[in-house]
Design a protein that fits this description.
The protein is α+β, with helices and mostly antiparallel strands. The protein folds into two domains: 232 residues, P-loop containing nucleotide triphosphate hydrolases (Rossmann fold); 109 residues, OB fold (Dihydrolipoamide Acetyltransferase, E2P), CATH 2.40.50. It contains nine helices and 23 strands. The strands form six sheets. The protein has a six-stranded mixed β-sheet with strand order 6-7-8-3-9-10, sandwiched between helices. The structure holds adenosine-5'-diphosphate and magnesium ion. Adenosine-5'-diphosphate (ADP) binds next to α1.
Length: 356
């Protein structure tokens, strides 16, 4: 197990990158704590696989260094880095049995056969393939093959880190949930540094202690699920996490108040003036109260989600979503107010510090 430092890493796939846009991965300077469970979350194409492959050594970064426990490993291969990586699609030996597929990474490292047997049987239990141990992998279904891939990632206990690149994509939903629970349990039991790539917020939030949110080649926030929910550092985090995402209202700031259309909202602090910047208020639907007092809105639509209802309304010509309890009644003369601590201020998409 290792602490992993990414030291001013950048990556461009093309030669001679000139501007920031030429980099698939913009500068990353970050420490992954030894034994941490991280999720790398972001939409397709944002650079998750690029970052993961740089950590594992499949990809050499254009710039910067990678350190494991303070030692520079930038020029070391994946085997030399002692990393296990599980990919989105199965990587297995079709002609070998399920058992031998799992034993392979251990035998490769000359682990004594008794220990191989113990670890393989333990792993077969975790991936629920004990009954298939002596079958050749070739006849198995796609999700069984992927479980073998996952098992090959988990079978070694001496690795510096285990990296997962959207490993459950081809697995059916129920099994997905079970395997994710197993991974969490294994993490608690063995304390490996784990990095889990996904584009699914539920998967990220349930697996990780810390979620690393990526957007257009950049890490926009690293935080606990609570931090991402309560204090999104970037408007993208507000939008991507939560359902529905955070409301964004373009505003004019004057001293300690924000002007949205004809309405004034008290911020409680005065951010430094910057006439050129794009200023927005970010308010999650859960932090808005719909009632008879506050700022007038027009209700457009109500969506029922079972436990809650999502009210789609219009405020000063802008769409705004409000989450209400199922049994709360809709007011006839609808007005909104913001709960304490629920208003975030953004300047050019980045959160301005200061309690609003
Ligand atoms: P993600 O895993 O988040 O979907 P990737 O890291 O695969 O994103 O890709 C990030 C960006 O880099 C994308 O724009 C993608 O098209 C580009 N990219 C990825 N791999 C290559 C490659 N081998 N050659 C050129 N461009 C690539
Ligand atoms: Mg990817």
């Amino acid at each position: 197990m290792a602490r992993i430092n990414l030291d001013h890493i950048r990556h461009a796939y093309g030669a001679k990158p000139k501007s920031d846009d030429d980099y698939a991965l913009k500068e990353v300077h970050h420490e992954w704590v030894d034994g941490g469970a991280y999720a790398l979350l972001g939409p397709s194409g944002c650079g998750k696989t690029t970052l993961l492959n740089i950590i594992s050594g499949l990809l050499h970064p254009s710039e910067g260094k990678i350190l494991f426990d303070g030692k520079d490993v930038t020029n070391l291969s994946t085997p030399e880095r002692n990393i296990a990586q599980v990919f989105q699609f199965p990587v297995i030996y079709d002609t070998m049995t399920v058992y031998d597929n799992l034993a392979f990474p251990l035998r490769n490292r000359r682990v004594p056969e008794a220990e191989v047997d113990r670890k393989v049987r333990e792993t077969l239990e975790i991936i629920d393939l004990t009954d298939w141990a002596n079958r050749r992998a070739t006849g198995l279904t796609a999700d069984q093959k992927q479980k073998i891939s996952l098992g090959r990632g988990l079978v070694r206990s001496d690795v510096n880190a285990i990296l997962f690149d959207e490993p459950l994509t081809v697995i059916d939903p129920h099994m997905k949930w079970m395997l994710r629970t197993e991974l969490k349990k294994l993490h608690r039991q063995f304390g490996h540094t784990m990095v889990y790539v996904t584009h699914d917020q539920t998967e990220a939030l349930t697996f990780a202690d810390k979620v690393v949110v990526m957007y257009e080649g950049e890490i926009v926030q690293i935080g606990t699920p609570d931090e991402l929910f309560n204090r999104p550092a970037h408007t993208f985090v507000g939008y991507f996490i939560g359902s529905p995402g955070m409301n964004l209202l373009p505003a004019k700031i004057q001293n300690a108040s924000a002007q949205v259309g004809s309405q004034t909202i008290d911020l409680g602090f005065a951010p430094p003036a910057d006439a050129k910047a794009k200023m927005e208020l970010g308010i999650r639907p859960e932090f808005i109260t719909l009632g008879g007092e506050g700022l007038p809105v027009t209700i457009k639509k109500v969506e029922d989600t079972g436990r809650q209802k999502i009210v789609r309304a219009e405020f000063e010509g802008l769409p705004i979503a409000v989450v209400m309890d199922e049994d709360e009644a809709l007011p006839t003369d609808a007005k909104i107010s913001f709960k304490p601590g629920g208003v975030n201020l953004y300047r050019d998409s980045w959160r301005v510090n200061g309690e609003a």
